[in-house]
């Protein structure tokens, strides 16, 4: 036998791989399917509503991750495996009108449908609802609101306002009560704090124990111009109105100028909703003054450039 034959045989042995069995291929096949979402029932409606929302790609990804985790946790429990509980308290950071409240409501419904929350109801509060006027009053008010939120979502908008006013401000008392409630009742309700990104970062820095209590932090980005146009058209469609092409041109120009001037205070979807509702009022006045008889269906639906009373 020559000295060169052994390495050749060894290489051939190493390169040979057993053919996969048909059952193994069948087991591996689901991995190629990709993302799966519920096709019927309350969960399917929730995902349908979420997917119809303009933008929010990172938010949609997060919701799918949570759904997948909860679904797999159910499968693990049914298989006799350990099913670990998770903390779902969240921070929503972003400008007004970026969908924070809407997404929080959807999450409440999803957690209820998945059995995490017993009710899934939604309670939205702000500083005035939490902070009292004398010592001890704030903690009482905060505990009462947490009690009402049991089994659902407690959503605090502009939560950073609780940390303003210095050490003597009663807002700190509310924060302490919330932290204690999160620890004592961590599986009974979900707390979502929302506000501007920069202010929320400063708020979290006021208490070293806060960031770790909110394992899920989501950034809601401002909508760009094309998305704002899509949102306006969708809002109009829901109200059975149509923006004419010339109207869209005028709106696009206005939004471009407005965003450039007031980028810090721009309220995104809320801003275009107000513009649309104002234009509907102006359209009504215009039609009533132009027509003696009822206008055509097309005219009743059309929002013309002159109906957009914007600078």
TrEMBL record:
Any one GO molecular-function label of the UniProt entry: ATP binding
Task: State whether keyword Nucleotide-binding applies.
Answer: yes
Entry annotated with the keyword Nucleotide-binding: yes
Q: Which UniProt keywords apply?
A: ATP-binding, Nucleotide-binding
Pfam families named among the record's database cross-references: AAA, AAA_lid_6
* Start and end residues of each AAA+ ATPase domain: 86-224
According to its UniProt record, which protein family does this protein belong to? Belongs to the CbxX/CfxQ family.
| Protein's name in the database | AAA family ATPase
Q: What is this organism's lineage?
A: Bacteria, Bacillati, Bacillota, Bacilli, Bacillales
